[in-house]
Amino acid sequence: MSDEQLIHEIISGNTSAFKMLVEKYQLRVFRTVLGFVHSKEDAEDITQDIFMKAYQSLVFFKGESEFTTWLYRITANMSINFVNRNRKNRFLQSLEDIFYKPSGEKTPLEQLEESERDQRIRKAIDSLPEKQRTAFVLSKYEELPQKTIASVMNISEGAVEQLLQRAKNNLQKKLSTHP
Amino acid sequence: MKTEHQIDDFIRREKQTEPNPFLSSRVMANIEKLQKPEVKKNPVWQVAAVSASVAAVVFLGISIGNSYVDSTSPETVMNINDSQMENLGYYNLENYE
User: Fold this and answer.
1) The domain spanning residue A60 has which CATH number?
2) Contact A19 B20 (CB under 8 A)
3) Which residues cross the membrane (chain B) (predicted)?
4) Does a structural domain hold residue A172?
5) What angle do the packed helices A157-176 and A146-153 form, to 10 degrees?
6) How far apart are CA A42 and CA A93, in angstroms?
């Protein structure tokens, strides 16, 4: 069943059609949210909220854009809102990550190094300006084409390219100061 | 180049995180909860009226209980006295001699 048909079914009152829609897109939404929050539990909670919001707002979806574009827009907005609201709690989360790092067959030293490196990368991604970060997450975590990112962010493709380039440069700059 | 590779590696590992398989069920449960008509709570005035009635009944009970005055006269008390009822002196006619 296509997205349009599913949406039509949902609006007609068939809630089980919404379950199909959730199952179809939950992984994509979850991965995108994870790119913003870097925590499985938070990503699951936000994914749940995103689908609730989508369900409640579905009647306002006019079909002017693709459903996925609309859903990614909600995803990006809600993830950014969550990050801004919980900026203070991120410090505790970072501390947790230092002590917990599941890894394959690496020595404790290698695990520690990897954990520190991951934390630096996470911090660098988190410190990107909002628009750069959104473009970066959609591009890297979801591998969306620039055209789709442009639709989600409501900007031109050229602007997306610029944002991605700046994000890349910023990350390089932030991470190159460390070995 | 090395930094870029590290970032890509970090993202690749993070992307491998799988969501809870019951995520869609959780979402649907929340939606069902949203659709269920809320259980109508009793209005405050009803709760207040019931509480006031209970309080009034208790107060009335205590008042009635307190207002009871023992009206038995000493004679009656004597009548219920076993020794009066079975006055052996009467049979002995000691007091009537």
Assistant:
1) 1.10.1740.10
2) no
3) 43-64
4) no
5) 100
6) 11
Q: Is the CB of A141 inside 8 Å of chain B's CB atoms?
A: yes
Torsion angle of alpha carbons A62, A65, A68, A70, nearest 10°?
-60
| Pairwise CA distance, residues A157 & A146, whole Å | 6
**B10-30 pLDDT, tens digit each:** 999 999 988 888 988 998 998
Structure tokens, A48: 């749940």
Q: What is the rounded distance in angstroms from the CA atom of residue A113 to the CA atom of residue A99?
A: 12
Structure tokens at A33: 């949210």
Q: What does the DSSP 8-state code read for residue A63?
A: S
Structure-token pair, residue A9: 């079914």
Residue A25 lies in a domain: yes
In which domain, by residue range, is A44 found? 1-86
Q: Is pLDDT of A94 > 80?
A: no
The answer to whether the pTM exceeds 0.80 is: no
Q: How many CB atoms lie within 10 A of CB B83?
A: 9
Is A23 part of any domain? Answer: yes
Q: How far apart are CA A2 and CA A77, in angstroms?
A: 25
ipTM here: 0.81
Q: Does B77 reach chain A within 8 Å, measured CB to CB?
A: no
Please spell the DSSP secondary structure of A111-161, one letter per residue. Answer: HHHHHHHHHHHHHHHHTS-HHHHHHHHHHHTS---HHHHHHHHTS-HHHHH
Inter-chain contact A117–B6, Cβ cutoff 8 Å? yes
Number of structural domains found in chain A: 1
Q: Which helix (H) or strand (E) holds A86?
A: none
